[in-house]
Design a protein that fits this description.
This protein is mainly α. It is built from 20 helices and no strands. It has one domain.
């Protein structure tokens, strides 16, 4: 199969995978939100914050190195994969033991000392995920997103089939924690079965040191990215109640899940594609701009649509007991729209070029503003923190545009030209929404209005933007991405 066909098929499998997962995940969450109370999700949020942080350290950035690096032959790739595997496994084992031994002091640092035993059990998934991390990287490198599709769907179904019944029986956070552990186990088993690569007893300090320079900065970038998405959770968990933490985390996580379908499905393929084109400046930029153009046609209407109908979305996703989450859903939908366009996808440029230290610098510049703003806003109150956290994305946009120009010589005129058609189409959709509010009301009226907005949006695309969309698709089919 040619590289062009691999890219096209990978994009299809990746997007199809995320579409199904992001369809199953909200359904699962909708059911769980009606079974469990908000404070339950607050407990799990604290555990997930720690687990996700340690998971980044155990991976050490080796997975991204395997995707990005150009190896001499298959033998060299196998040696690097083995060193990565045993290093990940060893670090994850030590970190898991460390968490179990010092579980109560760690829980105290997170603001909930009584969560010690809960955190210890939740950390068991770290060792399980380390087993499959290298397989995932190798699958992505080879554009084998079909097998990743099966693994992703299996995790989603595990949550639906196992976690929901457990929640009905246990009525506690243990259902979510057990579900996460079993999901990681299913993922590891499936990827191991599908993978042609098998770890062998091989290790080289020289190879480890070769990977360290890139992997160190890649790990720093991943940790900074973790901080961007978890610093507000840490602040809310320490200054506010479990109920408010649950409301905030679960509603923002739902928005992240829905909007993240776009970035989660395209980013792995975009990274693999850009990594192969990094030595051809023109094709490299063209690949990024063409894929981003298609992304904008999805991200902009999704973000603004979720904001316009935030009340109905909250009621459908969570039920009436989560009505306080309405404004969080609205604010986060706008923030995620900007973050996906100006942060998630540009981030793949830095990774593909093997310059994660520049991306790390970008993140630090953003965090210098984000952390103090969230902290001092939280001192005023819960809602000032929520809105301030979302408004910080404007600083992220400014920094992103500046970095694109400085490090990739991105032409602003060409870059922002990709926004024209998606913005105009979404503007028509928003105007239609305002008209619908005059004649329609209630949840049924909103659902009718949502379908009406979708029809109007695609009508605009058909009459005014279809030529541009077909041009981009033609370029992708031609193998020029």
């Amino acid at each position: 199969m040619s590289n062009d066909n691999k890219i096209q098929k990978s994009l299809s499998w990746s997007f199809f995978s995320e579409a199904i997962v992001k369809f199953i995940a909200p359904i699962t969450n909708m059911i769980l939100a009606r079974i469990l109370t908000p404070d339950t999700f607050g407990v799990v949020a604290v555990c997930n914050m720690l687990v996700s942080f340690v998971d980044l350290i155990t991976d050490a950035g080796f997975g991204k190195y395997l995707v990005q690096h150009d190896f001499v032959d298959e033998i060299e790739k196998d040696e690097y994969a083995n060193v990565s595997f045993w290093t990940n496994l060893g670090i994850s084992f030590l970190m898991t033991m460390f968490i179990i031994v010092f579980r109560f002091p760690i829980a105290g640092m997170l603001g909930h000392r009584d969560y010690g035993n809960i955190i210890a059990i939740a950390s068991l998934q770290l060792f399980i995920t380390s087993i499959s991390s290298i397989q995932i990287a190798l699958f992505r490198r080879d554009f084998n997103f079909k097998n990743l599709f099966v693994a992703r769907i299996s995790i989603a179904l595990t949550s639906l089939v196992i976690t929901v019944p457990l929640a009905i029986v246990l009525r506690s956070f243990w259902a979510l924690i057990i579900g996460n552990i079993l999901g990681a186990l299913v993922n590891a088993i499936i990827l191991t079965v599908f993978s042609k690569w098998r770890p062998r007893m091989f290790f080289s300090i020289k190879i480890l040191l070769n990977m360290f320079n890139y992997s160190f900065w890649s790990m720093c970038e991943a940790l900074a990215n973790w901080m961007i998405f978890w610093v507000d959770i840490f602040i809310v968990g320490n200054l506010f109640s479990e109920y408010q933490l649950g409301i905030y985390k679960n509603s923002s996580n739902m928005v992240h899940s829905i909007m993240g379908m776009i970035s989660a499905s395209i980013s792995p393929v975009l990274l693999s594609t850009l990594s192969r084109l990094k030595n051809n400046k023109n094709e490299y930029k063209e690949a990024f701009l063409n894929i981003q153009n298609l992304i904008l046609f999805l991200a902009i209407p999704m973000g603004l649509g979720l904001f316009l109908y935030r009340s109905t979305a909250t009621l459908i996703f969570f039920g009436s007991q989560w009505s306080e989450a309405t404004n969080i859903v609205g604010a986060w939908s706008l923030m995620m729209l900007c973050s996906i366009v100006f942060y998630n996808f540009p981030a793949e440029l830095y990774k593909s070029k093997g310059i994660p230290k520049i991306l790390f610098l970008f993140q630090i510049v953003y965090l210098i503003v984000l952390i103090p703003v969230c902290y001092f806003a939280a001192k005023i109150g819960f809602w000032p923190m929520v809105y301030s956290r979302c408004l910080c994305v404007l600083w992220q946009v400014i920094v992103s545009v500046f970095f694109l120009k400085k490090f990739f010589d991105m032409d602003y005129k060409i870059y922002f030209k990709t926004f024209i058609h998606p913005v105009l189409a979404t503007t028509c959709m928003c105007m239609a929404s305002l008209v619908f509010t005059i004649f329609l009301s209630g949840i049924i009226g909103d659902i009718i209005a949502i379908f009406g907005c979708i029809v109007i949006y695609f009508c605009y695309l058909y009459f005014f933007s279809i030529k541009k969309i077909m041009e981009v698709l033609k370029i992708i089919r031609a193998g020029k991405v």
